[in-house]
Amino acid sequence: MAPESPHPFEAPNPFWRSLGHRFRNAAGPVAGGFVLGAFLAAAPALAAADKAKGAEPKTIPIQSDKPIEVYAHEGIEWDQNAGTYIARGNARAIQGDITIYGNVLTARYRKVADGGSEIWRLDADGKVRIESPKGTVYGDKAVYDMDTSILVVTGNNLKLVTAKETVTARDSLEYWQLKDMFVARGNALAILEERKIKADILTAHLRKDENQESKVYRVDAFGSVLITTPTDIARGDKGVYFVDTGIATLTGSVKITRDDNQLNGEIAEINMNTGVSRILAGAKKDGESKPVRALIIPTRKSAKKPAAKSNKRSEKIKK
Q: What pLDDT was estimated at residue 152?
């Protein structure tokens, strides 16, 4: 970990008090199996405090009881013409146990009707890393648009690592706050121990459990879907996986392969916990069902070679 900047970002300067930022209701970090939502906790990290009447805060307050501190080795600048605050040089924002790293962190603000201003977009550029106890996200660039409440992480070697899952993507990793949904685009791959789900696009839907923690309960796969278990390889056009039951359903030109055997159909159910797979027929446009096709290759036992004849008798005769 990089050493701390000698002076964390605080708000002693009078213009921070007078600017009067107003923040939208940006959610805190998501405490689920995925942690892209952790970036949202930095929404006010580069902004000034709300209008202050009285003593100045020592750190920038946010909408929880935990402050956020921003460190930057090269400094933090305010560009009134561009409407930006920029923290440069191995910058990082810390709130509780969430830390966001980037070469540059930028907050963009705009004027509002009452004469104040509001933060509408946050950017992290260069060696982006978002860490929390739930996992770590890696990328080259992260953008959070507060109008749409969508976070997009892009770059090379995109990866999300948690205690149980690893998710990679070629094009982007996204968090849609209003839908409580994560999206991995472009050759997306989710790995859970020995099980893998691969597709052009993967979406993970979250909901709160009995402990009020957001956790992934459903994963949808679109385009060139490939599911791999220790025993089977399944392919299809679309798929849906329910975490609680461990059952994945594939539709469209489905093929399940186990060793040299293959099942073809339109719908398949794969229990990723037990390894039991079922393939079903699909309905044609005229109402008739498409047949299920199976190719089963019996295991052939190798033929035993005849025992070699003894040459002892012939050897005695020659003698």
A: 93
